[in-house]
Amino acid sequence: MMHLLRRIGYLLLALVSCLSVTAFAKQQAPEQPAAQQAQAAPAASERAVPALWKVSRGDTTIWLFGTIHALPEGIDWFHGPVRSAFEGSQELVTEITETDPAEMQQLVLAHAMLPKGQSLRGMLTPGEKASYEAQLGKLDLPAQTFDGYEPWYAAIALSTMPLLRSGYDARNGVEQILDARARELGHPHSALETAAYQIGLFDSLPLDTQKHYFAEVVDKLPTVAEELGQIVAAWRKGDAEGLAKLMNDDEDDPALVDMLLTRRNKAWARWIERRLDKPGSVFIAVGAGHLAGPGSVQDQLAAAGISAQRIQ
């Protein structure tokens, strides 16, 4: 279960950037030398060939492209079939689109803050508190940094910091690159979900689940960048099977998998099925974990009699 939550946390970095956690982390965490960032980040010497699928019916073409929401600089993935498919489409669709900062602030206040009089560290056992404060110390952060936040939000924010120090940045993420290019081409950019919905998914988790999630993030913080690096390496090679193995191993809570992953994939497959009735070409870019493994978007489409052809 916690493997799933940690993985979902990594792949919700698009949401994290909207929540301004990344900006907060940059303010709090000291800058690292460029050489250290380059050493920690995945090597970018080879061209990436991430997986791309095509769904078509009559005059309608829908492309499915798996993304990583935050990447180091220098990974060359926007070329070949991916670029051709994108620039030949009339519309970009992602999980969420950029949200007004004032609206995001209200969402955070409504869903990510603890009630007055409560604190994150007050929820922890003495051992958990000591481990957490030790990790904050290694990051040169004050012990009270996340005291006002719910465990799910603090966990995502905390896990973002080692990634930033390793050279990952949402500005290099696939969605931001595609959004910028869509603007240049004058293509509309719409979303399958809202930021409020994604925030609500985490906020709806039982408190005990959030606390376990937070405790695991604290425990695994030193290996966060390494784990995401493995995911990025599989994504760069277009290794959907390897990506599924990295993301889906050790899942032991079917209800949680259904809520955070399968149910959303089903909703997106229904959206695609409806969109196939309208002529045109659409480029859909969603977190790579949704296009890999059992219960993927492609599996949900297949259940409806719709096939997805692997192009790259």
Strands, helices and their partners?
Elements: H1 2-11, H2 13-18, H3 21-28, H4 34-40, E1 52-57, E2 60-67, H5 80-87, E3 91-94, H6 101-111, H7 126-138, H8 151-165, H9 174-185, E4 189-191, H10 195-203, H11 207-220, H12 224-237, H13 240-248, H14 254-275, E5 280-287, H15 297-303, E6 309-310
Parallel strand pairs: 2-5, 3-4, 3-5
Antiparallel strand pairs: 1-2, 1-6
Features:
312 residues; alpha/beta; 15 helices; 6 strands
Order of helical and strand elements: HHHHEEHEHHHHEHHHHHEHE
Biggest sheet, spatial arrangement of strands: 4-3-5-2-1-6
Stretches where pLDDT is under 50 for at least 5 consecutive residues are 17-44
Average pLDDT value? Answer: 84
Q: Share of helix among residues?
A: 40-55%
Beta-strand content: 5-15%
Counted beta strands: 6
Determine the number of helices (DSSP H or I, runs of at least 4 residues): 15
Largest sheet: 6 strands, mixed
Overall outline = globular
Task: Quote the distance from N terminus to C terminus.
Answer: 31 Å
Number of domains: 1
The whole-angstrom Rg is: 19 Å
User: Which structural category do the helix and sheet elements fall into?
Assistant: alpha/beta
